[in-house]
């Protein structure tokens, strides 16, 4: 990466990442101002949001924290030099405390709170590949086995991903899990990483931020069975983790990636809602795997458009699902905290620059042959340096180690896609432009978004069959948008506060008649999404509050049945309050309070693992009765539900002479995962919960409960 690119990375941190704490009196004033100013706006966009507010209240919604002192905001206009110095201090501390204050330390074990992944113990393990990354499985026939896919140290690695060869191991398998382990010491930003099998992105993750010696370590397990068709072939394994190491940023990432292959004796695991792995997976990427390099699209710089040539899509397709992987980086990492385009220059004089604009709303669009086929409203991932590093040690943010993908069922398009002709697939990112009298969505967004896609295809048992039918309807009107803003000025006529409200609602429906060798069905893909945010900037832009919620319902139904074939509901609430204050004598105070949640329900045939697989695959765990017959599942699982709520507070103080600094970081998270069952009419059955709290990088409470657990080989995350 060039020095200019490095400067962009530093500015990214200064503009959004370190957050700031104002003295209590200012916090009290700003919080009261938010209370009184935003209240009148709620009724004005209630009508717009009513189209989705009743879609489903999935689980308990977020409650606001009423401790005024803990509410801080996102500063983006900090003086550059002060921000750089604060960054240098913060990166050499643990939750803000100087290294010299903790003479005796152990390796910090970082972790993401999530449900366990279950895997049998490896019966054999390959020694791994050579320095070029060649890997080869080695195991006795009939046993499970573990293969080392990567052992690599990422230093100055921008544009230089790990590339290795993979050959399927000799042991039989119908299930695959991976284990990623990393260690790092020193000073470093968090980094995004993408894993590919050939041209197909199969996992997106990010790193934790290291500390002074002895540094940090983390481990993450992931079920990768849905990529089974790829694992059964020779592949080029590409792992792209761009990093910079120099005199200032000293942290290398030493990594190991293994894959465990094993067999579930009974296929009943697929009869409880999960889809059987797809027969074919088509990449929607730059397709540079053969060159051993990264295949991502970077928007808006790239045109993320792929043409599948004539005959490239199987003519006997019976189901197809498009999976989107997308997240913002650089100037779009904190897209959810942007202002509206018309008011981005509100504090230009005070902040010596504009705020990021084009609204705090983003939409990822999928187009097939130029027509909108589905959308994704992304989850606002906060990476391990996001808002304030003290919020993420050792408990990292929701999805930080495993960025979720979004499924769009494109089966209603099969009559078109199976015609043997070429077809285009395009991914676009949309924001909102309110500079004209009519507020509209726009493809113009800031840089940059990292996106790829893939198509999972299931084929008719008759290899000579040709899927026919017709697309009956495409209903994809522009979303409903409601917005209002207000600026107040001080006695000198300078802008002092900015309040903005944004409400967005969208419905989308695609219907097609799909005729295969065994069925003639009308398939309907339906999406109903809603977004609302109250944003507030105070103290001439040096303090910011964002209070938002993204919600949605997606499903695919057959022949107008009441029971969808696949259905998901999701709710992403986020409250962020951060601020920045420099006293006249030069003392710097930064701080943040972030409350974030994720709730979801997944029913039916999901492509990606739902987390239920270990609980209904007791046979995989070696559970057998006295007669040697695998034990059945204890429940009939209808769907999976998840509710994760995370609350953190962090602050950092440094004296004006740069000689003394101190800080504080506290995070707690409650995670509940379970199943919907048919036993009592969609009763919710808890399967796993974790209630964990950390203060100043030390876990002070960690209560984990597994309800109805499988009886062996449970691998918990962290």
Q: Quick recap of the structure?
A:
This protein has 718 residues and is mainly beta. 9% of the residues lie in helices and 42% in strands. Residues 1-103, 122-142 and 618-634 have low confidence and may be disordered.
Structural summary, described in words:
A hairpin with a 2-residue loop joins strand 6 and strand 7. The protein has one domain. The chain contains 8 helices and 32 strands. The strands form 6 sheets. Strands 21, 22, 23, 24, 25, 26, 27, 28, 29, 30 and 31 form an 11-stranded antiparallel β-sheet that branches. It has a 5-stranded mixed β-sheet with strand order 1-8-5-10-3, with no helix packed on it. The relative contact order is 0.17. It starts with a helix and ends with a strand. Helix 1 crosses helix 4. By secondary structure, it is mostly beta strands. This is Peptide N-acetyl-beta-D-glucosaminyl asparaginase amidase A-domain-containing protein. Pfam families: PNGase_A_C, PNGaseA. Keywords: Membrane, Transmembrane, Transmembrane helix. InterPro entries: PNGase_A (IPR021102), PNGaseA_N (IPR056948).
């Amino acid at each position: 990466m060039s020095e200019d690119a490095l400067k962009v990375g530093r500015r990214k941190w200064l503009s959004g990442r370190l957050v700031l704490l104002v003295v209590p009196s200012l916090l009290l004033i700003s919080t009261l101002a938010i209370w009184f100013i935003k209240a009148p706006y709620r009724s004005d966009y209630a009508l717009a949001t009513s189209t989705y507010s009743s879609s489903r209240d999935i689980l308990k919604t977020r409650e606001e924290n009423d401790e005024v002192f803990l509410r801080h905001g996102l500063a983006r206009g900090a003086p550059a030099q002060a921000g750089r110095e604060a960054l240098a201090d913060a990166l050499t501390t643990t939750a803000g405390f100087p290294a010299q204050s903790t003479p005796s330390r152990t390796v910090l074990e970082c972790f993401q709170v999530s449900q366990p992944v279950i895997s049998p113990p490896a019966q054999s393990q390959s020694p791994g590949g050579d320095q070029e990354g060649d890997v080869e499985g080695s195991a006795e026939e009939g046993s499970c086995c573990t293969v080392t896919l990567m052992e690599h140290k990422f230093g100055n690695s921008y544009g230089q991903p790990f590339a290795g060869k993979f050959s399927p191991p000799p042991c039989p398998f119908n299930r695959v899990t991976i284990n990623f382990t990393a260690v790092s010491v020193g000073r470093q930003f968090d980094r995004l990483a993408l894993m590919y099998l050939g041209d197909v992105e199969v996992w997106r993750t990010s790193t934790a931020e290291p500390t002074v010696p002895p540094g940090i370590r983390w481990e993450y397990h992931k079920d990768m069975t849905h990529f089974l068709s790829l694992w059964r072939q020779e592949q080029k394994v590409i792992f792209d983790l761009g990093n910079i190491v120099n005199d200032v940023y000293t942290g290398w990432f030493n990594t190991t990636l293994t894959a465990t292959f094993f067999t579930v004796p009974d296929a009943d695991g697929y009869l409880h809602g999960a889809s059987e792995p797809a027969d074919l997976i088509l990449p929607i990427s730059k397709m540079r795997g053969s060159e051993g390099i990264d295949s991502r699209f970077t928007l808006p710089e790239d045109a993320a458009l792929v043409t599948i040539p004539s005959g490239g899509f199987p003519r006997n397709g019976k189901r197809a699902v498009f999976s989107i992987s997308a997240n913002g980086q650089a100037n779009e990492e904190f897209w959810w905290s942007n202002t509206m385009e018309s008011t981005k220059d509100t504090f230009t004089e005070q902040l010596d620059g504009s705020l990021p604009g084009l609204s705090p709303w983003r939409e990822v669009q999928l187009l097939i042959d130029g027509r909108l086929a589905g959308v994704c409203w992304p989850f606002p991932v906060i990476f391990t340096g996001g808002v304030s590093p003290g919020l993420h040690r050792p408990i990292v943010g929701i999805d930080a180690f495993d960025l979720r993908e979004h499924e769009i069922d494109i089966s209603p398009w099969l009559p078109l896609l199976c015609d043997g002709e070429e077809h285009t697939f395009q991914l676009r990112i949309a924001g909102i432009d309110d500079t004209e009298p009519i507020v509209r969505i726009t493809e113009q967004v800031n840089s940059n978004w990292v996106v790829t896609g893939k198509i999972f295809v299931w084929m008719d048992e008759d290899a000579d069959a040709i899927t026919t039918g017709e697309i009956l309807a495409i209903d994809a009107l522009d979303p409903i948008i409601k917005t209002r803003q207000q600026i107040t000025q001080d006695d000198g006529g300078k802008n002092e506060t900015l309040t903005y409200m944004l409400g967005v609602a969208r419905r989308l429906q695609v219907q097609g008649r799909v005729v295969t060798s065994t069925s003639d069905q009308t398939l309907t893909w339906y999406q109903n999404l809603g977004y609302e945010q109250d944003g507030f900037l105070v103290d001439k832009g040096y303090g910011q509050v964002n209070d938002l919620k993204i919600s949605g319902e997606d499903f695919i139904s057959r022949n107008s049945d009441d029971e969808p074939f696949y259905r998901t509901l999701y709710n992403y609430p986020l409250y962020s309050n951060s601020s920045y204050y420099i006293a006249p004598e030069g003392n710097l105070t930064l701080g943040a309070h972030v409350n974030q949640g994720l709730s979801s329900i997944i029913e039916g045939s999901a492509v990606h693992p739902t987390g239920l697989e270990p609980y209904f695959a007791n046979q995989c765990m070696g559970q057998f009765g006295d007669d040697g017959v695998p034990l059945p599942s204890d429940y009939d699982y209808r769907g999976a539900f998840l509710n994760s709520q995370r609350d953190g507070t962090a602050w950092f103080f440094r004296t004006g002479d740069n000689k003394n600094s101190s800080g504080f970081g506290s995070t707690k998270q409650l995670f509940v995962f379970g199943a919907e069952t048919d036993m009592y009419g969609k009763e919710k059955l808890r399967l796993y919960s974790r209630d964990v709290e950390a203060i100043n990088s030390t876990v002070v409470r960690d209560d984990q409960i597994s309800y109805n657990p499988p009886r062996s080989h449970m691998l918990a995350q962290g």
